[in-house]
């Protein structure tokens, strides 16, 4: 009996059971009958179960496709709810062009997008790095280098992530110029979506290597012959993606309502609480990978998520806005959102400076986390304590100050690590050449 309980399918059954209450509620349209707390609990548990399925699907797929591509698919599915939330605001803005409601929705779309991107780095990259090092207190992880001295231990990042880092740096550099336009327009869409398409074109040509031996559910599915194995991956991706897509919106809305009941401003909720909920599947998946001592795959997923949010997410806003408005146009935003884009780009610039030597130390992770949290807390305090227009003025000063800090720190890191930066671009250029027809060598993304 115990042996049967330990069968990998028992784990699949257990995680499926976590999603069934929400599946019933969603299928029967019973959400309005629930309290906000009940909605958060049931949908949140479903997201948890679906996140494990998503991770299993990506790990199983590594036997048939390059790891970077499998994790890129995982990243898109995990953050799909964030795309849907932003698309809703962009659609509302396009359907109400020239009105106060339309401008408010456009600003909310930008705020939600920038909030999601800063959470992914400020909490995701830093938190997972700290969790990775903490986990080695009780078990080994080959990615962690333990060093004597105060907070000097570090997590080593796979150098095959050079391509992801280079493309993310290109998207970050471009993002600094977006606020100078009349809004997020089709030129931005063509550049950013095109950048991501080129990235996918490179990594999909990668060689499928033998990776670390899997255990548990992924090992079980990888033992299937190819057709059933591929079907299992598609089923895991499809079911988990569907659960995440349907459950994260009510989860985020429930959190928003609970926050509003506590007196948290609505705009603050849209920028921070809703994206935190929509990012939760990705963070759960990465924590699961790190807990299996697969830190390299975890950071690959985090960086891939940031890349697709920083390219596809921004690029789709103008498309949805134009469709809703009935004409090609640019999603507008006010001065506050210009500053939000700049600080988001600056944070990304600093974070990439940290990863330029393919390491992130405990010290660096703490600095990344403290800068993120202190800015959010400072702006929240200003909003709660001061009245308009003074609150708005102080909020802008905070954004510009932190933007400057991120830029100075990031520039210093890139100067110190300019040799590693050249290596990143050289490696990316070689991968791009090899991805072309007749390339001399396969593009590798192995550990």
Written description of the protein model:
The chain is mainly alpha-helical and 447 residues long. It has one domain: NCX, central ion-binding region (A middle domain of Talin 1). 75% of the residues lie in helices and 2% in strands. It contains 16 helices and three strands. It has helices spanning 2-5, 8-28, 36-61, 67-78, 80-95, 100-135, 162-175, 186-203, 216-222, 226-261, 266-291, 295-325, 335-355, 362-385, 390-416, 418-435, and strands at 144-145, 154-156, 359-361. It has a three-stranded antiparallel sheet with strand order 1-2-3. A hairpin with an 8-residue loop joins β1 (144-145) and β2. The chain starts with a helix and ends in a 12-residue tail after the last helix. 47% of the residues are buried. The model is unreliable at 1-5 and 442-447 (pLDDT under 50).
Total separate domains: 1
Bin the strand percentage: under 5%
Secondary-structure element string? HHHHHHEEHHHHHHHEHHH
Please outline the major beta sheet: 3 strands, antiparallel
Number of strands: 3
Count of separate DSSP helical elements: 16
N-end to C-end Cα span: 38 Å
Rg over C-alpha atoms, rounded to the nearest angstrom: 22 Å
- Can you tell me the CATH class? Mainly Alpha
The named CATH superfamily: NCX, central ion-binding region
Which class of secondary structure composition applies to the elements? mainly alpha
